[in-house]
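Re: [help] complex structure
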Amino acid sequence: MATVKTNRSLTTHLLRRAGFGGTKEEIDALNSFEYDHIVDYLLDNRHKDPVPVDLLRRYQIDLSDVRTNISSGSYWMYRLAHNKFPFEEKIALFWHRVFATGQNKLIQGKPMVTQIEMFRKFGMGSFEKLLVELSKNPAMIMWLDNQDNHKDNINENYGREILELFSMGVGNYTEKDIKECSRAFTGWTIENMPYNAMKMRNNTARPFGYIAWQFKFDEKDHDFGEKEFLGEKGDFNGEDIVRIICKQKATAQFIARHIYHFYIKDELPVPQWPHEEPIDPSAIEFIIESYFKNKYNIKEVLRDLFKSEYFRTEEIYNKRIKSPSELVVNSVRLSGGFDIPSEEVYKATSSSVLMGQPLMNPTSVEGWQGGEEWINTGSVIERINYCSEILGDVNKDVVNNIVKQNPDKKNILNLCLGELGYIKLELSTKIPIEEYIENSLPESICSEEVSLIIKLIVSTREFQMN
Amino acid sequence: MKSTITKTKFKYIDTVGFTADVGGRGFHLPRDLAINSKEKVFVVNRSGAFHTAGLRVSITDVNHNYYGEFSKFGKNPGELYWPCSITFDTEDNVYITDEYTHTISVFEKDGNFVKRWGNKGNKQGEVNSPSGIVCDQNNELFIVDLHNDRVQVMTTSGKFIREWGKKGDQDGEFNKPWGIALGNNNEVLVADWRNDRIQIFDKNGLFIDKFGSSGTDDGDLSRPSGACVDKDGFIYVADWGNQRVQIYDEKFNFIGKLRGQAKLSKWAKEYLNANQDEKRARESFSPVINIDNVEVHEESARIESYFWDPTSVVIDKNGHLLVLDSNRNRIQIYQRA
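Output below.
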């Protein structure tokens, strides 16, 4: 039997925050390693073929052209639920929130699928490289109208948002900086822009469906003149602008607050950041220091953070409300994943929408604030119903795994809590469930009773938290 | 030993169809097509999840005539849920497999629903996601039983006749087979999808031969979805995973490949004529661009004239090759030069 080297609560905390929660089997397997090794294992492994794309495209055929919201969202949902190294999906979800881009304007889902793939590929590396790739990303170009940013007639939309929403935050640059930044991104467009933009504007898949977009640098439409940006002068292109942005302390602080908000504890809404101090300034300083020390490498920043006391302290365990996608993906993973072929993935995607988080369709350019905003009377019901249905399914792994262990009235609650990823209940939650088991369940426990207890657990506040 | 390869050229002829995702003239995510004795082309449109209005069977021909459509999305008799493949008996009655309901639906030649049969299971006569289907001159139906990894032969009323195959990668075994076709001597070609090969049997299921292996080089296959044979014995394979059609001679030598050269169809031109803003915007459109280094599925998504998920191939009486270009909602037509 493997020696336990890491506190199980810490392992489950890490798996919840760096991924989408672990199964009992995953947690037990990782516990035999030193904590730092677990962090390294989660961050350094990637899976080449996380989902059987050929099967998806054959059976769920709309996941091949991924044209509609439900199709593109479901394609990602498959990956979220099946990637053996969920950290790369979690980091994609993180960047999707920061660089919020929405399919409703783009009309077709394919560019969003491509953007998320870009987050997987570059989201763990240098922030500078990521920001360049973001600026070249066709979905972002069309989302923020950079195809209309011309050398003799600039459109400031992208130039403003890259500074305000994607890197430095309000108050750290001037209106002139926005204009100069925009000039540097003139000519950053997509291939066949007039026709593709027309198809987007007219919302038409005729004659032969949409054409996937590809970045194009239009030299003839680029402003090669001298620019002055954040105190530096030169014939700056977009890459130069990003290089200057990334070395600013304001950028490090802005990214640090996003990382803190996503991985540690809910921060204030972004619009308040220029006016309010971070809730934990020392943690932000720690992340800033790591950002510069690691040459803007995001994975190394997260490695430092996950190994730090800011992350390891028990004070933050189960203190964040799971986002809808975290809740759905956690439930699907615990249940053993999606059957292929089936319609389960569409249901999962739709449930995330009903809970308030339509993947690839954030509500605004500021993404989802999260925290208590996830909870309202409608979303709570959907959250409980979805988890109950998936995890209480007597044909799925969770119930079957527990039944195999011959549960009785004394151990059924602990068995269920273990199979759900070692959920810890507060006494005020635990006692009523124990009383219910004692007074209402028969002596002989079958799958129906197991399902019932699971449904009670997933309805608790503790299960709904991360 | 393989014979000397004969160089053969293929000429693009025409494109039929365009996107019609809520019904009407056109197609939406079609899975299969077949040609009846009157040279009418029946196209099975599966359409998408939560976007099911496009599910129906469209009737057209290579001259761009549109004769109508029948069936719709649903689980009731006469409706289809995940339709996959289509064939005709000698009276032009229509048989359509449904991978979701595990049934075969039967329609008259004009689309009037007759009946459906089939039950989910793995016993003789039961099916688990029937995919490819083809009918021979004796009105025996050869049905690819996807999740049972076998071929079953049944009567047109669903009575079991015989079966062969099991899961595996040896001769006569299958891994998620898809399309099925008959050769000139009534041999049976099965697209052994996840084994990346075509297997050939006699009508009783006796293994005759096979060709194709996993890869992207000429002659290699990646997830082949269908095949057909012309009067000279040339074999055409929908090399779905490689986004191309490959052609082999009767000894399975590779003799050519098609990547797709579609131009605007008649219906597409009519659409653009009616939408002048799009027509003007298209004047500067280059269908073929220099592509970033991306995988072939993405390449197809970026170049409008290429095949994007070619699922089915058939030869008509004039020797024309019809390629069902699924994600582009059209049929590309070629001819051997």
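The first strand of chain A starts at residue 188 and ends at 190.
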